[in-house]
Amino acid sequence: MKSLAKLTEAVVVIAKDAGAFIRAQSQSFSSEMTEHKGLHDLVSHVDRTAEDMILSALAKLLPEAGFIAEESGSKTAEEFNWIVDPLDGTTNFVHGVPIYSVSIALKQNDRIVLGVVYEISRDECFYAWRESQAFLNGKAIATSPAKTLADSLIATGFPYNDFSRMEGYLRLFDDLMRNSRGLRRLGSAAVDLAYVACGRFEAFYEYGLNPWDVAAGAFIVQQAGGRVTDFKQSNNWLFGKEICASNRLTHDEMIAKINTYLLK
To answer: If you ran DSSP here, which 8-state letter would residue 165 be given?
Structure first.
């Protein structure tokens, strides 16, 4: 196998190639081309074609690896598995809102060892590998130095089909609106996490997410000096469908608020 640095370099190219296809498709895309996978859960030929492109290229790059992918499901291998979201932010894409991304991570056994998030519209590529710094378009990045939520801009996501925690979620939303610099909902968890990694956001939290939504971005946050846990401050954020990522300094305060409203 190539070194992780060389492997990451190759994955960046793959992500950008898929992003170029998606960008080209956005010029003529119509919302009539979408299908519904579930309640408010959209997919199109763009997602599927981009994923086929990515998986085909990754298979040539690391033939022994399996995959966990949004549109193709899972075909896992014993040691290495790619975790792929070909178009994170499909609803944004369908509606012409220019915040969506390609997200690719590599898991070795139980650890993510490589992550790439390519934010297509801004041509921003975030990436890291095990024991590296985190990077944005070749320049090292780090999480924000803010120490309190009062000095923080926080990102979240709105559930689109799991409303089981909505009462507590809205109460938490109200608290954070009053006691931070504001809340943002971009519509792509991978981009939210990348923005935590480079210091644009101090924290991001959401529930109901899948591994392909968070694997690459969360890993990049960690390599940028941040902290990632589930809501109980354990390490089950990849498959546990809940995540809190932060600049580390605000993490305990963020978790305390989540505990107050969402874990009762």
So the answer is: T
Q: Using CA of residue 174, residue 175, residue 178, residue 183, what is the dihedral sign?
A: negative
| pLDDT tens string 21-78 | 999 988 876 555 566 554 444 457 888 899 999 999 999 999 999 999 977 778 999 9
Which fold would CATH assign to domain 4-141? Fructose-1,6-Bisphosphatase; Chain A, domain 1 (3.30.540)
Q: Matching CATH topology for 4-141 and 149-262?
A: no
Residues 261, 35: Cα–Cα separation, whole Å: 35
CA 226 – CA 130 distance, rounded (Å)? 14
pTM: 0.94
Residue with tokens 């040539």: 60
Rounded CA separation 102/13 (Å)? 11
Report strand pairing: 101-108 vs 41-43: unpaired
Q: Crossing angle, helix 211-223 and helix 189-197, to 10 degrees?
A: 0
Q: What residues does each domain of the chain span? A: 4-141, 149-262
CATH of domain 149-262: 3.40.190.80
Taking Cα atoms as reference points, which of 152, 161, 165, 185 lies closest to residue 261? Answer: 165
